[in-house]
Amino acid sequence: MAGFGFHPTLADFHSLLFALCHNGLVNHAEVFFRESGAHFDVSAKTYTILISGWAVVEKPENAQKLFDEMVERGVEPDVPAYNALIDALCRGGDIARAQEHLKDMQQSRGLVPDAATYGPFLRAACASKDARDALRVLDRMRMHDLTPNVFTYNAIIRLLCELGEIEEAYSVPDRHSYNMLLKLLIGVGRIDKAVEVWDGMETRGFHPGAATYAVMIHGLSCKKGRLEEACGYFVMMVDEGIPPYQATCEVLRDRLTRHGLRDQLEVLIDRMRRSTSCTIQEMASIMRSTKRADETRSTSSDQELPGHDLDENEWRGKWKLGD
C-alpha cells in the first residue's frame, strides 16, 4: 500500500489479521502481527482477533499466551477479549480455567459478562452430554437478563431430547426455538407433546409461521396414521393466509397420492384456490403437478451449532469485532 502512496491504517491491519484467521491461517496471522504490529497502536481488538482465531482452531494454549501478553503490555482486556479467551479454553476442554477468567473479568476488571460470555460454557456442557450443567448455565444467564441465541437454545433442547428428558426440553424454549423442539419431539414419536407445545405457543407470545407449520406437516405426514393431522395443519396455515413452502406442498401431495387419497388432495387444492392470498392461490397448481418432490430436499429451517467454519458476519457478531 505504501508503494502506491497509501499508508495502512489500524483498520487495514485488523482486516488483514481477520482475513488470515478467518481462513484458518492463524499462524500466518500471528507472524504478520509480530512483524507489523510495531507500526500500529494495537488495542484489545487486535488481540481479540488473534485469540478468537486460535479459539476456532482449538489451540487454547496459544490463545492464553496472547491474552497474557496483552495484559503484560498494558492493553486493558475488554469483554470481547475475555469472551474469545473463554471460548478458546472451553473448546480445549479447560472449563476450570475458563471459569477462573469469568470470575476475574467481573471481580478484578469490573466487566459485565454478556450472552456471548456464557455461550462457550453451554456448548461445552452440551458436548459432554451434561444436561444439568447446561441448565445451570442457562438459569444463570436468565438471572442476569441475558438471552441465549437460537443456536444455544437448540443445542440444549437437542441434548435433553437425546437423553429422553422430554419434560425438561418442554420447559426450555423461547420463541426462537419452537421449531427445533417440535421437530425433535415428532422425531422421537412424542406427537402428544408436540401438539401440547403447539397449543401453548400463542399464550407465550409466539405465532407460528411457514417454517413452524412445515415442521408439523412434514413430520406428521411421515408418521403412520398421522396424515390427516398433517392435512389439518396445512388447512390451518392456508386459512391463516400463510403461504406454504413449495416443498411442503410437494411432500403433502406425494403422501396423499401414494395413499390413494385424491379426494382429500382436491379438498386442499380447493381450499387454496379460495384463499384471499394470491400467492396461495398460485401455489394450488403445485398440488396438482405430477412431478414428485425431491425426498432429499432439506425442509428444516433449523441451523446447527457453528463449528470451525464460521462466515464473516458470524465471526464479527460473535466477538463484536466491527469493521
TrEMBL record:
Q: What GO MF terms are annotated?
A: mRNA binding
PROSITE patterns with a match to the protein in the record: PPR
Outline the PPR repeats, range by range: 43-77, 78-113, 114-148, 174-208, 209-244
The alphabetical list of record keywords is: Repeat, Transit peptide
Stretches of Basic and acidic residues bias are at: 305-323
Q: Which domain of life is it from?
A: Eukaryota
Known InterPro entries for this protein? Mito_RNA-Proc/Resp, PPR_rpt, TPR-like_helical_dom_sf
Positions of region (Disordered):
285-323
Could you tell me what this protein is called?
A: Pentacotripeptide-repeat region of PRORP domain-containing protein
Query: From what organism does this protein derive?
Result: Triticum turgidum subsp. durum
